[in-house]
Amino acid sequence: MKKSLIMLSAVAAFSVTSFASDMNKEMLNQIQALKVQIEALEKKVAEQEAQKPVVQQTVVDEKRIENIEKKLDTVSKTATSAKIQSGNDNLKWDVDFRTQVDNIQYKHADGSKSKNNALMTNRLWLGMGYKADDNSSFHGKLSYNKAFGDTANHSQSNVNTTGYSNFDWVTNENATDNTIKLKEAYWLYTNNTFFGTDVPWNASVGRRPSTDGLPINLRNDQKANSPLSHVVDVEFDGFSVRFDTELTTGLRGSWFKICGGRGLTNAIPRFDTDPDNSAIAYAEDEDLNVDVDLLGIIAVPYDDGQYSVYTNYAKAWNLIGFDNTDSEFKDVGDMDYATILFKTEGIGNGISDYLDDTIAFASFAMSKTNPNALEMLGSPDSEIGTSVWLGINAPCPISPDDSRIGFEWNQGSKYWRSMTYGEDTYAGSKIATRGQAWEVYRNQKLTDALSFGLSYVYMDYDYAGSNSFFGADGDPDATLNVVSAQDVRAYMRYRF
Amino acid sequence: MKLLKIIMAGTLALGIASSTLSADAAKGQKLFSKLLKEPCGMTGAKFAAKHSQEEWKALKASGKFEEELIKICPNVKAGDVKESLQEHIIDFSIEFANDSGNVPSC
């Protein structure tokens, strides 16, 4: 029994041992397989680690960065202050230089023609501005406008000299005189309150910007100057006071401006050759035309930035008429002017970008003479003249981003008399036309500074004296000599 | 007359050769008057003087002009001024920034 038990135990032990051995073998195989897998994984991880960029750990010095930021902020503020000072602490100049060629044709009543196929001119405006503080600024403009070369017979020189010291070929090389032309010079005071009231206002005195006002500025491709150009487009010395009434009246964009000035000063010059006058320099000369004065008001009852209405009333005293018997100007009487202008900056709202960028205007003006014994415009009676002016200014369809086209039409009645002698048209003022005038133009921006323009103006006269003064020279019943005039002009302009 | 004909012919060439100039300060001034004068309660000149030229340029570059516009004029809402029109107003603002030295006339 013992022997059999020992035998059985031995067999069992052997079998267990052999089973354990099989198990170990199996486990060993599995461990080997796992080891291979771990090695493969390690290799893969090592490869991935090798591909990763090396991240350099930098020690961030928060305080140092804070100090640098503070310093940068201080430097930036200092630089801005310096720029403000340097930008505002000097006279700021701008330049507007235009070279133009005009083809001018006049047709006479007898069928003959007068013409200039190519009148070439250079015009230079040197503008200046200086804002001394928040309330006061100065503006000025020096001007030069001359045809190419000297003039025929040296007859239209700017300086009366004996001989030819001012001949154009050498005018800047010869010692002549110290003349310089001043187109504008005025100071401007602005304030947000008028004696404590909620009325922003400004006042200005000097040689004011009284040419190229609204709406002639559209055709001239420039910002509108002070007056409405339907009745006033001349250089003028005077004053203006403007009050913005939007806050007090509730009428959007409303304002009014009182303008006045002197268009002619009667004063005996110093060292006058007349022995009777030599000792009374700057006293009034009783034998000559008295002072010509003008006073007016421009009122804008509504302007929302798109739709606007401008009105104007002005009175001019002691206006000049040319007396052929004495060959001098004489005081012939006074004149009243009135204008109403409607303007839209954009047609409709959001219909199209093109219409949003289209400007249209309609202007109606009236002139009324108040003659003295010398008569005005050839009539002893008070005569009323009227004028209508319509215009449109829109982007040019072929290049809407940089050029604009426009069309204007105006018609003046028999006794229409505007004060638009300063209008920028070499064939005479189109606005002064007693008859019909129309103009088509295109202005194009070429670079930030250069622009190019082309225009055609046609004036068809129904009555004589469209471009004359206020006396018998402006008589519409006189013989009509020039029945039509046209001016084709092309220009290159540099502005910066 | 020949000279004028040459100039007339040159017009077309110039029309083709000219570069496109999209932004316009003068147009910006008009747009400010039309769209922003009332909600901002200030003139364009005053608005432009809120920043220096560099600051306006930075706002233009970062595309944050509208954000700044709303900050200055709380009555203005996002989208009130089309993006295409904003560029003109930015150009006007740069032109009359507080360090520009440019003087608005009367």
What does this structure look like?
The complex is a heterodimer of chains A (496) and B (106). In chain A, strand 10 and strand 11 form a beta hairpin. Chain A has five helices and 18 strands. Chain A has 496 residues and is an alpha+beta fold. The termini of chain A are far apart. Chain A is elongated, with a radius of gyration of 42 Å. Chain B has a domain at 23-96. Chain B is globular. The termini of chain B are far apart.
Task: Describe what is shown at a glance.
The complex is a heterodimer of chains A (about 500) and B (about 110). Chain A has helices spanning about 1-50, 60-90, 215-220, 245-250, 355; strands at about 90-110, 115-130, 135-145, 180-190, 200-210, 215, 225-230, 235-245, 255-265, 290-305, 305-325, 330-345, 360-370, 385-395, 405-410, 435-445, 450-460, 480-495.
**Percent in helix of chain B:** 55-70%
Total strand segments of chain B: 0
Shape field of chain A: elongated
Mean pLDDT reading of chain B: 81
Distance between the termini of chain B: 41 Å
Largest sheet of chain A: 16 strands, antiparallel, barrel
Question: Radius of gyration of chain A, Cα only, in angstroms?
Answer: 42 Å
What is the residue-averaged pLDDT of chain A? 88
CATH architecture of chain A: Beta Barrel
Q: What gross morphology of chain B would you assign?
A: globular
Biggest interchain interface, per-side counts: A-B, 51 and 36 residues
Question: What proportion of the residues of chain A is helical, as a percent range?
Answer: 10-25%
Topology-level CATH name of chain A? Porin
Low-confidence stretches of chain A: 10-20
